[in-house]
Amino acid sequence: MSAPGWPVVLRHGDIVVRPMKLRDAGTWVEVRNRNADWLAPWEATRPGTPPVRENWSERQTVGVYTQMMHRLRAQSRAGTALAFVIAYDGRLVGQLTVSTIVRGAFNSGHVGYWVDGARAGQGITPTALALVTDHCFGPVGLHRLEANVRPENAASRRMLVKLGFREEGLHRRYLSIDGHYRDHICYALTTEDVPGGLLARWRETRSAHS
After folding, report:
1. Whole-model pTM over 0.85
2. Is the pLDDT of residue 51 over 60?
3. Nearest Cα residue to 147 out of 110, 114, 115, 109
């Protein structure tokens, strides 16, 4: 038996957010390796003393993808995560995961995402995040989504602000990246913030600035 709202395919125009598939492995490896400089500064790595230095290409293989996919799909079926790829015009261009889903009084989750640098600035990631947010606040039944971003990641911070995520504070030494614990800024959104849905508000925002 699957968790509420899973599995699901979400779509807006040429942008599709769908569950990860085994056949995505080759494209995932190609996109990730091509985007090493674009993605590495923001991605979590294993902590250690002295710092653990990991080779990027060793972390972007079919075997790594397959293990990750099976783990995240199991978590998605159990309702503790929602693991998606982002596709544009039929091709995988990124990934979006709602993780650490906690029910009960908290009823919240953490969202993380990445996109091919060649597709950055085209509205793909904010549209995908808006689709997933509406799904989480609807069929999945969550009340709150949180995104944590390094202060230096100006592009991601701008996107979250444009979508209406509010800055809630600074987490000191929050996540291990490149062998060191890095500060992150917390952004969050609740159901009360988007009564008409986030995608509708994002479309209005884009139309007003077009």
Report:
1. yes
2. no
3. 110
